[in-house]
């Protein structure tokens, strides 16, 4: 007999909530039962425009969603400055928490959120969608192959897009009172997560911000970069920006091979995602090419990555509800490591690009 679907409430009507509400509908083990906004009219319009079930309840406050006994879990796409308050309150109300990224303004805030989730026995997961795509597992298998890839030596990641005039004037991600981390918290989160994923979540020892980040008039970061260094000699760089053309690259260099992916954050096609590898390549005669050449690997999926994320989260919640399982600690641990590196890069920027030790 199939387990009943996990019942989601959504706090807020952010644009990203359109994508995730669709994912909740597509995932086979979840359903939307409530949405709340500061305005009942806004919540009603959002539910109608995004095809919510007719049975979904609409509220004019976030508290009402958390007080609804029919809500098992909440998705929180609110501005980062509001995460501490509402994620903690959700956990205290025994609601499982799927939290948009960046999960907090700093690791001190995140620790309060994670402690609340642990104390209440609820599952925590951040909404980093690409980690749930089957391509991610396939890429990891290549990186783990000592013959094809070898030892990881260097990593490079970029996530940027052009925000445009309206974005750079009005979007919450450039407002110091709403999302003070700016591009570092938004696009930089993905770059840092990709680097940590590739290193099996081994934290770097040192983070050093690169000179000349760009800020708006309110002091919010619009673009920045950093280098990361590990004790074993690995090095990584990343660049994140609201000011350069859409780029979503990872490049991983090993002693025997390399891996490239050009759309790691959001695949260019929803149902198929490629990556490119080379192994044991050498120049051919007169350096007219290389052998073997790079090969393309295309990974198909029946569900988009955001629906797979919801499915994984709902599966964990269902295990806790129906089987008495304990919350999976992997996800909060990964979130915390990502936040720790963001904090170190931000500290390096604030200290005039001095190297900063990464402390977990």
Automatic annotation (TrEMBL):
<feature type="domain" description="GFO/IDH/MocA-like oxidoreductase">
    <location>
        <begin position="146"/>
        <end position="259"/>
    </location>
</feature>
<dbReference type="Pfam" id="PF22725">
    <property type="entry name" value="GFO_IDH_MocA_C3"/>
</dbReference>
<feature type="domain" description="Gfo/Idh/MocA-like oxidoreductase N-terminal">
    <location>
        <begin position="6"/>
        <end position="125"/>
    </location>
</feature>
<protein>
    <recommendedName>
        <fullName>Gfo/Idh/MocA-like oxidoreductase N-terminal domain-containing protein</fullName>
    </recommendedName>
</protein>
<comment type="similarity">
    <text>Belongs to the Gfo/Idh/MocA family.</text>
</comment>
<dbReference type="InterPro" id="IPR000683">
    <property type="entry name" value="Gfo/Idh/MocA-like_OxRdtase_N"/>
</dbReference>
<dbReference type="InterPro" id="IPR055170">
    <property type="entry name" value="GFO_IDH_MocA-like_dom"/>
</dbReference>
<dbReference type="Pfam" id="PF01408">
    <property type="entry name" value="GFO_IDH_MocA"/>
</dbReference>
<dbReference type="InterPro" id="IPR036291">
    <property type="entry name" value="NAD(P)-bd_dom_sf"/>
</dbReference>
């Amino acid at each position: 007999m199939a387990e009943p679907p996990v019942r989601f409430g959504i706090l807020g009507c952010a644009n990203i909530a359109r994508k995730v509400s669709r994912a909740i509908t597509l995932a086979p083990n979840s359903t939307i039962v409530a949405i709340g906004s500061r305005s009942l009219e806004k919540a009603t319009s959002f539910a109608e425009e995004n095809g919510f079930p007719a049975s979904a309840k609409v509220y004019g406050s976030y508290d009402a969603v958390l007080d609804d006994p029919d809500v098992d879990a909440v998705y929180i796409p609110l501005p980062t400055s509001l995460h501490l308050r509402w994620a903690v309150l959700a956990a205290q109300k025994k609601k499982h928490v799927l939290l948009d990224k960046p999960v907090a303004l700093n690791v001190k805030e995140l620790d309060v959120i994670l402690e609340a989730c642990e104390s209440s026995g609820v599952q925590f997961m951040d909404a980093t969608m690409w980690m749930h795509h089957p391509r991610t597992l396939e890429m990891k298998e290549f990186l783990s192959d000592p013959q094809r890839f070898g030892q990881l030596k260097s990593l490079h990641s970029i996530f940027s897009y052009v925000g445009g005039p309206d974005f750079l004037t009005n979007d919450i991600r450039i407002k110091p009172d709403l999302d003070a981390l700016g591009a570092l918290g938004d696009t930089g989160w993905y770059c840092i997560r990709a680097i940590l994923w590739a290193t099996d979540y081994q934290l770097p020892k040192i983070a050093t911000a690169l000179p000349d980040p760009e800020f708006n008039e309110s002091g919010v970061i619009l673009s920045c970069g950093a280098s990361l260094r590990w004790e074993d000699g690995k090095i990584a760089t990343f660049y994140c920006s609201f000011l350069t053309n859409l780029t979503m690259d990872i490049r991983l260099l090993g002693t025997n091979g390399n891996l490239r992916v050009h759309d790691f954050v959001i695949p260019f096609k929803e149902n198929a995602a490629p990556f490119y590898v080379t192994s044991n390549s050498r120049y051919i005669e007169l350096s007219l090419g290389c052998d073997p050449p790079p090969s393309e690997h295309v990974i198909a999926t029946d569900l988009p990555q955001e629906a797979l994320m919801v499915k994984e989260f709902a599966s964990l919640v269902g295990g806790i509800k129906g089987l008495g399982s304990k919350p999976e600690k992997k996800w909060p641990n990964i979130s915390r490591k990502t936040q720790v590196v963001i904090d170190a890069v931000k500290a390096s920027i604030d200290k005039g690009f001095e190297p900063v030790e990464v402390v977990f």
